[in-house]
């Protein structure tokens, strides 16, 4: 068989580990051939390819990003997109595709598979907000980077008797904030799933100062206060229409400074959470996803996506990669709340 | 309630995270009091205690080791040991114990619980060889440390066209070798579960040199060759009867040097795998174990041990912490083997 | 002798290493006694003390921040400040002070020493902008943290064909940007010492895209474009009068996006550069400063400050810690420029 | 000009940074061409080359090892070696060589330069034992790796009330032990420069246990006890004539266990000290050495070697790279000794 591989959406530590595992096992165990498509669905759409064999995947396991490049191109939003993809796959002699990506990438994969293209999917979301799998790769790396930043900020907070607000990734789901906050010993953790009361946050912060231990507040970029508490939306975009750095984090630091009478500072971790070398957890998970994906292709088991259940890698319908978000359940948040008050 | 806490067996990153979670929730949510027992079962046996409250657990989350100290003391091997423990617990006014430890510590916990002492257990094994739980804390940290060492060794191996043998922990189960080897891109991984053929290993190594990519061999300290291939046992102990550093690793490097004609070197990671700050995964898992443990104590649900199943923390019978080892199944080893040949 | 110790100004990895060395050698070699003053000059001003002996400095070497706390209090700006300090020192029986801090802290130290208070200084500036010494501690840690962030951002930049602008500390001197940029393989480095031409920067960035290697631009927070190129000052402060996160970095990313036609993103490293555990270089330098400082006190050699010259720790007049800034010389910038064009 | 580049001797973090700087500046500033010679002096001796241009040095700055490979081949020990080198250089059209290496490599460089080959040298020794320069690259990385290992071992030592002996690199000079020991808060540091009294070491260790703070002993691989204290030489080699892992470290741990009555364990850091990504200090130093080296070539200033003096990179005679070892002076050891007793 000749198999195409592509990566779509935001980059995520572990993408290269998936690519490598697919190719290494595909060649060694099954004798398949591979072709890389560049920049997500843009690759098969525009016929942009890259050689992909044992030599090309040598040494990429510890590297972040993706050697294939990525984009957010959606062929279903382009006139004749599907036909172009089919034509390019035919021209390349590609029998099947391994598509590695998030909700959007897998949504395209699902539809293409329904339209007769042989696709196997590997889920990728640094936010860990996918119902079908216990964890996605990239998440563990992001949490560790955020935790290490929080570890560093503790000593600054203590030495200066300051509040430090750490804004982490997570527009719709607070998994990174929850895990990094738990791991980093945060005083308060604020998630998109649960509007927060800024007065209550200020009370927690004050309480922490009273025990002479300066507070760290971890906040998801998508968290927001109770209705009526924030009236700064107009300032949240700059003259280019970009969201300003330090949206909710900076707003919160200002509020806390005012309400607690203690200096507050914000750190927005941003892109350093998603780049660079993956943790062992993510390298192993991504590798196992890749191995299972090439097995699925070899078995002709298309329309499937890889998932982690307990310690097993299983295959689930591709459509499961595009459904409802896995948000942080109340029980997990309450578990963490016990640390807020002291 | 007044609750005693102790840690037994080899140290493991995450022990302090458990202690902290137990105390923080115990005080904040339930108003319990705590007393620390020093050095595992030696503490209640000899009445060695340590104050344990919110102040004592402040700042210990990121610290490796255990603030309570540890030992391998077994009260059932000491005359009147159980009676002494009961007397000391009574004297301290202790209603229940949280025992954090491995097979030996939990074995004692099980027996004491049967004899009427209220005990809740938290499992700890850096080797991840416990059937009752998907993962134990400390394992992820050990794997990451080993992986980082392997990452470093790659460039030396390549620059000098040398084989590098990395000996990692794991006397009876090869989980650390398997995961660190997968994550580090090892050429060959050797486990206690499966005697290896040193000729086959030499063939793998030679193949890797042929593609101009120097090989890393990851070997569990408990791995051993096929019967008859090793005749060095007499040299494995030094004049003090201690096992020499570089047992199987050094032997293997010598064999590979001879059989492949390429220089080989050994690195024995040893104790650096078990010390120091835990990863985020281990801090979160240990914290969640601690939270569930104090809930179990509060519920009067004694004789139970905490376990991870998928993403849930559940309570299982204490006895499950002391049963058969969870060794690496053949399927997981075969999964990894696909990388050996190329 | 009875010796007071204080730390002033912004926190900096290595402060605790200085305190520890002063106390360890002071007690072990000379039999002196110590008292800690809290929060910089606020401590002696208001008589805020903290016990300081061997026990208190145990285990603090690897910890960031300062166990004594810090502040920017200046006793010369407070009515009767000097008299209060003298009175409090007398009351505490303090014969001499070790003051660890930056320009402001050492400025106070210099004046107090002239007024008859026995002071020895240890210089501290994370920005490395002190003429009297080859390096200051904290700088190496900050550079490593920034470099690791840049390492991580490379893979994101490449995978997404994006420019990444990394804003690092340095209001008046560009040492962190220069060293982190050199170490991180930046495409362009922009410093406060040299107004930049945004058109030239865009040309460099475009050139890097042409060789299919996405650019990283490292910019000091205090860097600024040629006169007339930036007209956004009014937006640089928020409603609280705080400088917005992403000042120059965000502005530059927007400019580059517009001028190059390639997406650009900003990361502002902020406080993570100054917290957390020090590197070996900083621990050794801080320790050696501390050892030399207590020797100076013991010798009665007051009015002096510690400095690194080559591999030696020497004593120079305290006043040298408060003079002209050591900015990046043109020759060092030109050295780096050779990497910009390709 | 057409310039050859080679790396010889043991690998060292920063070699690739030198190669990259030489090539980047050579091409961009001077328009020179380059050819890489493989595996040290073996390359020009046997005519083994590798293309070396901007593309080849892309992305190698953060990588350990050397993309050119290394060996210990000495052409002066081979019949007609010099003539072969001259012939191969002529055939390749090479006008000058940049030789990056330690004492042996630079010794060959010196002799060849005297024989009319145009050579510029860049010194490399992870041991930092070169008189001509304040520091060599690779040393800072090795010290940080050793320090991080020591940091990790502290918690194990404390939790188990054990002595931990850490054996670090340094056969003839104790710089790594001195700096890693100072940075890691070692209880005792033992160097090749100063035979140690094992009784005295045991006294220090016992003293540390008395203050309830478990001791870390850092020992250079080349350290040795006072005459007569060690009678184990015959056991130091295995059946292949290799030096056993854990030579002095393991011996010392056994002695300390016996003399102090406390368990002791050894960790031999070995090759992980010399592989992997360089620290910022080493990347900057190596880059600056490379920039100065290509300037020297361009200037026709042959027979020189690069050196760090304070914050300047200067050129010194090549012969300075091969003279007397820079060992740890007594004053630096005494500086550290103040921490041993408590």
UniProtKB/TrEMBL annotation, chains A, B, C, D:
This is Pyrophosphate--fructose 6-phosphate 1-phosphotransferase. Its cofactor is Mg(2+). Catalyzes the phosphorylation of D-fructose 6-phosphate, the first committing step of glycolysis. Uses inorganic phosphate (PPi) as phosphoryl donor instead of ATP like common ATP-dependent phosphofructokinases (ATP-PFKs), which renders the reaction reversible, and can thus function both in glycolysis and gluconeogenesis. Consistently, PPi-PFK can replace the enzymes of both the forward (ATP-PFK) and reverse (fructose-bisphosphatase (FBPase)) reactions. InterPro entries: ATP_PFK, ATP_PFK_prok-type, Phosphofructokinase_CS, Phosphofructokinase_dom, Phosphofructokinase_III, PKF_sf. Signal peptide: none annotated. Pathway: Carbohydrate degradation; glycolysis; D-glyceraldehyde 3-phosphate and glycerone phosphate from D-glucose: step 3/4. It is found in: Cytoplasm. The keyword Kinase applies. The keyword Metal-binding applies. The record marks 104 as: Important for catalytic activity and substrate specificity. Its EC number is 2.7.1.90. PANTHER family: ATP-DEPENDENT 6-PHOSPHOFRUCTOKINASE 3, PHOSPHOFRUCTOKINASE. The active site is at residue 127. Keywords: Cytoplasm, Glycolysis, Kinase, Magnesium, Metal-binding, Transferase. Residues 2-297 form the Phosphofructokinase domain. Belongs to the phosphofructokinase type A (PFKA) family. Mixed-substrate PFK group III subfamily. Pfam families: PFK (PF00365). Substrate binds at residues 125-127, 162, 169-171, 221, 265, 271-274. Diphosphate binds at residue 10. It catalyses: beta-D-fructose 6-phosphate + diphosphate = beta-D-fructose 1,6-bisphosphate + phosphate + H(+). Mg(2+) binds at residue 103.
């Amino acid at each position: 068989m000749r198999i195409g591989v592509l990566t779509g959406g935001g980059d995520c530590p572990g993408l290269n580990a998936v690519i490598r595992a697919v190719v290494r096992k595909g060649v060694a165990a099954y004798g398949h051939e591979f072709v890389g498509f560049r920049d997500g669905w843009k690759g098969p759409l525009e016929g942009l390819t890259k050689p992909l064999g044992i030599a090309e995947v040598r040494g990429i396991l510890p590297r972040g990003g993706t050697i294939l490049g990525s984009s957010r191109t959606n062929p279903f939003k382009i006139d004749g997109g599907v036909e172009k993809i089919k034509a390019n796959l035919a021209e390349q002699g590609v029998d099947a595709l391994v598509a590695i990506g998030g909700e959007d990438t897998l949504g395209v994969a699902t539809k293409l598979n329904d339209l007769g293209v042989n696709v196997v999917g590997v889920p990728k979301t640094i936010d860990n907000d996918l119902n079908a799998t216990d964890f996605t790769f990239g998440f563990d790396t992001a949490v560790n980077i955020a935790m290490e930043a929080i570890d560093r900020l503790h000593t600054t907070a203590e030495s200066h008797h300051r509040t430090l607000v750490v804004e982490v990734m997570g527009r719709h789901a607070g998994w990174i904030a929850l895990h990094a906050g738990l791991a980093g010993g945060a005083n308060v953790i604020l998630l998109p799933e649960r509007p927060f009361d800024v007065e209550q946050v200020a009370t927690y912060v004050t309480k922490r100062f009273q025990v002479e231990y300066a507070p760290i507040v971890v906040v998801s970029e998508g968290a927001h206060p109770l209705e009526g508490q924030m009236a700064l939306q107009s300032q949240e975009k700059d003259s280019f229409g970009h969201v300003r750095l330090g949206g909710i984090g900076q707003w919160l630091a200002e509020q806390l400074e005012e309400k607690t009478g203690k200096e507050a500072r914000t750190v927005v971790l941003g892109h350093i959470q998603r780049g660079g070398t993956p943790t062992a957890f993510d390298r192993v998970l991504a590798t196992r996803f890749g191995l299972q994906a090439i097995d699925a292709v070899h078995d002709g088991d298309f329309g499937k996506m890889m998932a982690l259940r307990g310690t097993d890698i299983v295959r689930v319908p591709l459509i499961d990669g595009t459904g409802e978000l896995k948000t942080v359940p109340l029980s997990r948040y309450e578990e963490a709340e016990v640390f807020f008050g002291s």
